[in-house]
Amino acid sequence: MVVDRVEALPDDGLPAAVAPVEAAAPVGEDPMVVIPDDAVLRIISFLPLESAIRTTVLSKEWLRLWKEDWGQKSRRYEIRARCAPSVEGLLKILEEERRLERLSVVVHTIMKSSHLREIIERSADRRVEQLHVELTNPNVVDKVRFHLPILSRVIALQHLSLRQIVVSKMRFTPQQRFNELSEICFHFVSIESYMLRNVITRCPNLRFLDLRSCFDLDAVAISPGGPKLSSLTIAGCKHLNKVNVVGVTSLRSVFYSGRFLSSFYLPRTSRRSSFTDLYICYDGPIIPMIVPSLPDEERTTQLKWLGGFRRLKELQLLMFDIKTINVFDIYAFLQSFHFPNLTKLFLQLPRIREDVQEAVREDVLQSMSEGVPEYALDNLKVVRMMNFNRTRIEMHLVRFFLRKARNINSLQLVSLFHNAIPLGLAVQQGDIIQGALASGVIQESNSGAGTTQPCHSEVFIDF
């Protein structure tokens, strides 16, 4: 019960009366019940999913509303042969729905392009905001076409996810736009470059673009006047030969995994443009030594945009092999691009090695490492080497980091073998490794669970 505040008359010469304290809510009573349901749902709708779930733990009433709202506005259907609902049955169900925010349709059986078109039309009528469509039957994938221009009827659509879909070549009209669409995820989608470009230019509010294993896609190009894209992911698109997003200064996260591209243009870093996440992984068996092979004048021109690496705080290097030439690439990279703010370095070594070990010359490795300036790794505090196998090259790298990273306080070596002899017994007395072991800088383990984890936890290539 809330008691109104009582005050003495201002002219009676007496001090104001003390306001009674509000009565405390009974023990066990949910304090959130006083908030109207529509206000609670409004608050939850602005929270990220993880935060919304955590918030509902504090209040049973919030949890009840969240579950009811999610259940009422979300539908996921798996269409299978001789199981309800059929495709026709699904269309009838959607016809009876009044309002849907999230719709997921996964088809494992036979369907027609007309069925897909009707699903889109039902989604438009129900003002669907998040739509996922997936075809798992390979016989259907080759025959059914998804008409993206028709999707413009779903005017409330914010998130589009397609998987194992062939996009038709149907043309857009000037009026067909996706004004609310902010996120596109195409996985195993067959779409031509000009069609993707037509879609992107019609999405003024597009922020996230995720393209994985897309067939027929040979170029990803976004003009400077296009959407203010903040995150771009491209992985496994085998026919891709060009990426040009140099004019998209709003980009903050770029993830690329695939074959080496000679035409790969990212925004030039400036005060208006700086990356928070940059992931580039070439999956070719022979990686060209891009930096050492460029003439000095060409290197200055072509790689000027990489000056933004000076603000980089974390770097992860994924190695497909670990030979002398690979170590040379690492040193050339560190020598060409200085990282004064780098604090964490993760080196993923290959799990599978060749049986024949190359002859390693310590003097050659030592001379190569001298090219990396002393100040390049001044702020480096943590280094983690995964799949550490104690080869001569790997031991050389350990000594390199101990010498060059003068402020390092944790060098984590995650080994492949559980019964390996202690590292201290594998080196001679007086070795720099002995001192690092004694001071606790070097930490050995057989599992990466207790070690520092990189922020890029999703790796597109298996090691």
UniProtKB/TrEMBL annotation:
InterPro entries: At1g61320/At1g61330-like, F-box-like_dom_sf, F-box_dom, LRR_At1g61320_AtMIF1, LRR_dom_sf. Residues 35-68 form the F-box domain. It comes from the Eukaryota. PANTHER family: FBD DOMAIN-CONTAINING PROTEIN, OS02G0105600 PROTEIN. Residues 106-413 form the At1g61320/AtMIF1 LRR domain. This is Uncharacterized protein. It comes from Oryza rufipogon (Brownbeard rice).
